[in-house]
Design goal:
Blueprint lengths: L1 H15 L50 H11 L1 E4 L10 H6 L1 H4 L3 E11 L6 E5 L5 E5 L15 E13 L2 E5 L4 E8 L3
Parallel strand pairs: 4-6
Antiparallel strand pairs: 1-7, 2-3, 2-5, 3-4, 5-6, 5-7
């Protein structure tokens, strides 16, 4: 079941980045809802185990993977993306997802472990908090390729206006904001 859900998310993510071509075999238009298992991923696409990007909710972090340590590392020693981070407090991802209308259009800071990077154009990162809530950091397609900046498993803090109906669903548009990406990798 998780494989079907994961494959469906992969299909949607690939289509959302504008990289699919309906005439190519294996694109979302060729996938019958009942045969998602038959979707073929391009050879250069990174394959992630279906449950690999899921952090167990309320899992007790250990050592360097403690969220406070990861946040400090990202903010003090991290790679600056665009303007970096200026807000001093993060809004919990769960709060934003619980009432997205309240946050729509407002600049917020979020943080979490990177669990996904757009494989089509590198236009977004998905951050997941320690309870399993996830939200994207998004740039305009073609302006920045996150695949060249980081990898899954690193911690990031990002800020920008929240958009509840973005290209990839709910997201922070960081073009007028930025992010800091730490250099400590935590196994997921």
């Amino acid at each position: 079941m998780m494989l079907r859900v994961w494959a469906t998310v992969l299909v949607i993510s690939l289509a959302a980045c504008g990289d699919s071509n309906p005439t190519e075999p294996g694109t979302p238009d060729d996938v019958d809802a009942g045969t998602v298992d038959q979707f073929v991923v391009a050879p250069d696409t990174a394959i992630v185990e279906p449950d690999a990007a899921i952090v167990e909710p309320d899992a007790a972090p250990a050592g360097n993977c403690d969220p406070a340590n990861l946040q400090k590392n990202a903010l003090e020693k991290g790679k600056k993306i665009l303007t970096g981070v200026t807000l001093t407090e993060s809004t919990p991802i769960a709060d934003i997802l619980a009432d997205p209308g309240v946050f729509d259009g407002k600049t917020r800071r979020i943080e979490g472990i990177i669990v996904e990077i757009c494989q089509s154009q590198g236009c977004y990162l998905t951050l997941q908090d320690h309870k399993g809530n996830a939200l994207n950091l998004k740039v305009i397609d073609g302006t920045l390729d996150f695949r060249l900046q980081t990898e899954v498993g690193f911690y990031a803090v990002g800020e920008g206006p929240f958009n509840q109906i973005g290209e990839h669903g709910a997201q922070l548009d960081i073009m007028n904001g930025g992010a800091m990406i730490g250099d400590i990798a935590c196994g997921l």
